[in-house]
Every structure is written in C-alpha cells, then in structure tokens.
Amino acid sequence: xxxxxxxxYRAQAVVIRHLEYGExxxxxxxxTLEKGxxxxxxxxxRKIRSRKAGHLEPFTQVALFLAKGRNLDVVTQAEAIRTFExxxxxxxxxxxAAYVVELLDRFTYAESDNPQLYHxxxxxxxxxxxxxxxxxxxxxxxxxxxxxxxxxxxLTRCVHCGKxxxxxxxxxxxxLGGALCPNCAxxxxxxxxxxxxxxxxxxxxxxSPWSAVKERVIPDDIEKNLKLLMERYLTYLLEYxxxxxxxxxxxx
Length: 252
Fold this sequence. Notes:
The protein is an alpha+beta fold. The chain folds into two domains: 2-83, CATH 2.40.50.140; 86-251, de novo design (two linked rop proteins), CATH 1.20.1440.120. It is built from eight helices and eight strands. The strands form two sheets. The chain has a five-stranded mixed beta barrel.
C-alpha cells in the first residue's frame, strides 16, 4: 500500500498547451502550484467517451491525480476548478490568454517550482475574464512576471549615472535593464527614446497592488508605445521574438 501511494500524487495546475500523441492520447504542458512547469500524458483523452477531455483544455485551472510513469507521469483523474469559458468565448481574450501563457512558458524551465508565478498566472486569467481592460491586465502581468523572475527594470534612477529620473522624456536600455537619462543615452546605442507617460505607467504598475490598478484604461497613444517597449525588452531577454503578439495584432 505504501508503495502504491508513493506512485500517485495530487497537483493543482493550469494547462499551458497540449500536443496530440498517438491515436487517442495527448501530451500536456502544465504549470503547477507544487512543482512548476512539467509535461504529463493524458491517455485516451481524445476518445469520444473520455471524461477528462473537458477538464484539460488550455487555460483551465484543474485539480489532478497523477501516477508516476517511466518517462512521463500519467493523468488518472482531473477536475476543473475554473474553465475560463468567458475567455474561450472571446477570440481577443483568447489571444491575450495565449500571450500570457506563452510568456510564462518561454521564461520558465521544467520543474523549477515557483508558487508565486502559479498564483500570478491564475490571477491574470481571472482578471482577463472579469471585464477589466485586457491591456491593463497584461501589462500589469508583464511587470509582475519580470519582478518575480529577477528582471525588474530600473525606472526611478538612470541605470548608468544613478541620478533620479526627471519628469521628462527619457531613454530605455534593454541591455542595461532600465531607464537612461538623456545625458547618458550615448552609453547604449541600442537604447530608444521613451515618453515620461510610459515610464509613469510602468512605475505605477511596479509599485501598486492590483486593486489600485484595475480601473485604469491606458490611453491609446501610451498603450502603443508601452506595448512596443515591453515587446522589445522581452525579446531582448529571451533572445528571440514571441509568436502570440503577431496573432493578437492580426485579430485586434
């Protein structure tokens, strides 16, 4: 009995993505509360009578029973906690959710547990479904994710000279990890100009709880430049571009 119990365990997870496998199985990539990101197999899930299929769709938060396998652990039971039907019913929200999970997937390694990231992911999906401005939700998530992963950009002082950032347009250096004052911009030829309003929004998201941010709707002109800054910064950190922003642009 003890050996049997050791071979099975519980996990709480969000399904990040899946891949068809064999005639009826699926490989699932999960982000779990207990052990971070890892891959499992759901056997027979593509059969018409499968009871697990509806509980293991992408973005679903699910409670699982798993059995340890030789190569991959096997899903034996699955019970959805939240299905996020409101996201799945809206193509734009689906694209934002896909971006959220792609970012987490690209920035994390297998079985590097981080409960804070799990809760951030779930909270972000809840916020997307709640009717809050999706751009506000996603930029708040980007900033919080960078904080959790150790890539928090410096936005209050120049990353070269250390002087306090003044309320005028500045520069942003992905290489140096934050804002550059105009006097120091030449120290990174790849730095680009960024408006003081964009920096204000980023600082507000860095220092504020969600309750102080959730009613914000970012003006279009600021959103355009904030989106560009975050894409460039994230691409620099990852050393390649993400797939989902192009899809999001196409449907928006």
